[in-house]
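WARN  no MSA supplied for this record, continuing single-sequence
INFO  ligand: adenosine-5'-diphosphate
INFO  echoing inputs
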Amino acid sequence: MINAENINKYYGKFHVLKSINLKIDKGQIVALMGPNGSGKTTLLKCILGLVIADSGEIKVDGASIKNNFEYRHKIGYMPQTAYFPENIKVKDVIQIIKEIRGEKSATDFELYEYYGIENFTDKKISSLSQGMKQKVSSALTFMFDSDILILDEPTAGLDPLSAEYMKLKIKKEKDKGKLIIITTHILNEVEELSDRMIYLLDGEVRADRINDSSGTKNRAESILEKFTDLFKSYEWK
Ligand SMILES: Nc1ncnc2c1ncn2[C@@H]1O[C@H](COP(=O)(O)OP(=O)(O)O)[C@@H](O)[C@H]1O
Ligand SMILES: [Mg+2]
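INFO  complex generated
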């Protein structure tokens, strides 16, 4: 479904992504992990075509994303921080996104309803708390029933119940056969949700493991234990 071959990205002289090779299939939840600054958001943006890699190729469903805009319709993206225009109302933001994505493709209002967004659609974006913006952003991400969901720290800033609901929703979408790529720093979330864990460190894939504890009773090995070697090497670098 997504195939990244030898992706390199520089910001000036800074080598942010170093020869990334990944093949990601549908019907799973992939957790992209790694410390702050390890390149997670940059990699997601490369997949989305928002950042252009300096070398390498990314294919989505077999087609190169270079000069290709169509593939983006397959993707729902929830950025780490949503920047909506401050001076307009929530309902206007939703309307604008619907118009961009195609009015009729807005079919999934589950998060919209659960988060009670209807109750504050007349508020201006500038008056919303960070958590409320996060809710608007997530409702919009899921609204268009996209085959691929890319969620950059989706539960950060959400109250605990809302975060739980988001996790349920993510699992539900996976069960429909979708691909979900999620970054999070919450290890419990990774263990609970993901089928595969990819660990980035200094722009390199340092580990790529199947999460065999997910959904089974055998959770003896915690994520921390699994990655002990990596955390150690990072600490002493
Ligand atoms: N637009 C940019 N210009 C210059 N450097 C950037 C830019 N975006 C990210 N970086 C740098 O690239 C590195 C990786 O950032 P990022 O992908 O956001 O990491 P993560 O999401 O893992 O925290 C960081 O050192 C960050 O400062
Ligand atoms: Mg990030």
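The pocket of adenosine-5'-diphosphate (ligand 1) is lined by residues 11, 16, 34, 36-42 (CB under 6 Å).
INFO  checksum written, moving to next record
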